[in-house]
# Entry
Amino acid sequence: MATDVHEMRGEPEADWRAGLSDDQLKDVLYKLKLCRYFDERMEALYRQGRLPGAIYSGRGQEGTHVGVAYALRKDDSLFPTHRDLSAQLTKGVDLKRVMAQYWGRIDGYTRGRDGNSHIGDWYGNRTFAVISHLPIAYPIATGAALAYQRRAEPRVAMAICGDGSTSNGRWHEALNVSAVYQLPVVWVVNNNQYAYSTPNTLEFKVPTIAERAAGYGMPGVRIDGQDVLDVYRIAHAAVERAREGGGPTLIESVSLRWRGHAGHDPAKYVPKELLDEYMQRKDPVKRFEELLVARSVVDEEEVKRVQERVERAFDEGYEFAQNSPFPVAEDVTKGVFTDDGYWQREPSREGGTG
Amino acid sequence: MAQVRVESGAAGHGAEPRGKRTEAGEATYLIAIAEALWEEMERDERVYLLGEDIGVYGGAFKVTEGFIERFGPERVMDTPIAEETIVGMAMGSAMEGFRPVAEFQYADFMTSGFDEIVTATARYHYRTGVPIPVVLRAPSGGGVRASNFHSTNPEPWFAYAPGLKVICPAFPTDAKGLLKSAIRDDNPVVYLEHKWIYRRIKEVVPEDPDFLVPIGSAKVQREGTDVTVVTYGAMVHQALEAADELAQQGTSVEVVDLRTIYPLDTETVLNSVAKTSRALVLYESNRFLGTGAEVAAVIAEEGFTSLDAPVMRLAPPHTPVPFSPVLEDAYIPQVSDIEEAVKKLSAW
# Structure
């Protein structure tokens, strides 16, 4: 079942803003710049030895992350990977608590039980707490979607994984099951061309991931992850299609992972010409900023103010994280089960601010 | 204990319909399980079943026969053969307010959904505080000539994963009361039925729809004074038979049925050992690092001053479950093996 991508798009010129208002376009710019700045600053702190644990940069893929997450409503659910923190921030996750998590503090979303971008805010923003074994959340997203379908709620589940995850059996299972039951779910593959060091050519034989959708009986769309508005446009169409009972869609959004798999990886296996092409000519943040200036939605002054807001938010988050106490050691065994009520209480905070 | 041995067989595929209670009100283990599911589905519309061949066909062992007619295909969901997704789907729907009960056709196939069980479902609450009320049901155990891939006792794998409660009932009443507790529990529960017991054991089972057996509580199934046998599942019945034989020879055996593997009721175990001073730990999971290894360690560590003899283990060797009756009987502890082990302990 080949889907004409253009059916999901409006007339190019008339629909250049993908149905978004000026305020929404500015909001998208803020989110893109926030995600980029957060990513760069956290890497700098990591390199300085000031950030414990690991970092998984999503730089260069903000067009995908912000574009797909912006298509979701607050009560739609998002099942991301460790590289998709930008999608979680777009959905509304609190930067302060994210940063508290990176420093192992009690105000992190997992109360110090998990680190880095293994974050979720299920009750606040309906984001699933990331699990490393990708695409482990794909099957779980089918369950959330099943719940919406059963209760006839106009809600949608969206799951993100990378190109490498498409080699895993669960990817196949989940897509197949979602099509069999016509579940309200959108499958996003952030094809950043490398799974750790493994290129697309060693992950799959078909020319594109999107065309696999036909094998499951659902539409598949391949889009340019550098173009946040086009990502949003297609994601929004897929989300609304699912919301109206039209079933699942597979979206392959193509970009390049600018940094290594994690902070320790210099990613020398990525050809320099490829990296240069993406970083210098296909930067999704820069490209969107230039578009908004060219379309007179913002001027240079306003771009500067957006950047200042971003930096302020980061600094506030950093301060908050450093001042948040550590969890108390005695609580290490609490909350394995619901029975002890640990998660129903405010956590102990006498761990100091070391 | 009002128990009667009924028909043998029930190795699996194409088993006869589950039938009903006898006129005297006795229910087999299998019927007791079906009653628990039925009652909880009547009680709470958030409860639904999913699994392979459980709807139209009624399940490989016919536990859910007749359910689809009463509750419909949305609450008795036939799924594709996709164990990771069966578990994941259960988890995701539980996060959105449902209370799923997923059936594995055999406990052996739980390994096909292992990651979603031990990595996703088990650990989620500890990491986030979001309750995951999922029950994973599976027919486990050997002794029915079902061979290698249809006879496993995987309870140690799941009891080892923090965040899972693991139940292995031996009697119809416990099977019913514990399954109802599992469905009402806000945590993920692995509920391992024993297929050898399904149609062999029946007893009068409470009909009160709110009859529950608490998770995490062992039970003394037979009182005795000389030797404690700590066991669970089908081995409870072997132990009781051995105890009958040994009583005639003058040895009084106390049989402790763990009923729940995690959380382990160490108090009941230690109280019994304090009384008898001798402990045999009998189990059907493999001897090496099996369930009884932990029980034996607890007795040695916390009950040392009560002991007049070393804690002894009786369990299958470190091999897969074999098929040929000669081999399988050599693999699974027999009544005669239990008698021999108890005599050895008594001689200390």
Summary: Residues 135 and 179 of chain A are 17 Å apart (CA to CA). The longest strand of chain A covers residues 185-191. Residues 1-6 of chain A have pLDDT under 50 and may be disordered.
